[in-house]
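STRUCTURE:
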C-alpha cells in the first residue's frame, strides 16, 4: 500500500515550489492524498481490514491539519 518510488517522485516534481523541495506543505498534502486513494481502494476490496482503516484515519487527520495550516499561512 505504500507509494512506489516513481509515483512519489512524480508527485514531488509536480507540486514542488523550487528545486529539491520535498517537504513543503503542498508536497506533503499531495503525497498524503495519493496514499489515501491507495488505501481507500484497498479497503473497498478488503472491508474487514480494521488496521488499514485505522491507518487511513490517521493519514486523513494529518492531511486535514496540513490543509488547515496552509490556509492559515496563505492569508
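SEQUENCE:
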Amino acid at each position: 500500500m505504500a507509494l512506489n518510488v516513481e509515483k512519489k517522485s512524480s508527485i514531488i516534481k509536480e507540486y514542488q515550489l523550487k528545486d529539491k523541495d520535498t517537504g513543503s506543505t503542498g508536497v506533503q498534502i499531495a503525497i498524503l492524498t495519493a496514499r489515501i486513494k491507495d488505501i481507500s481502494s484497498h479497503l473497498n476490496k478488503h472491508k474487514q481490514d480494521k488496521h488499514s482503516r485505522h491507518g487511513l484515519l490517521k493519514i486523513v487527520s494529518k492531511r486535514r491539519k496540513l490543509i488547515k495550516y496552509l490556509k492559515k499561512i496563505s492569508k
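REMARK: Helices lie at 5-15, 25-45, 50-73.
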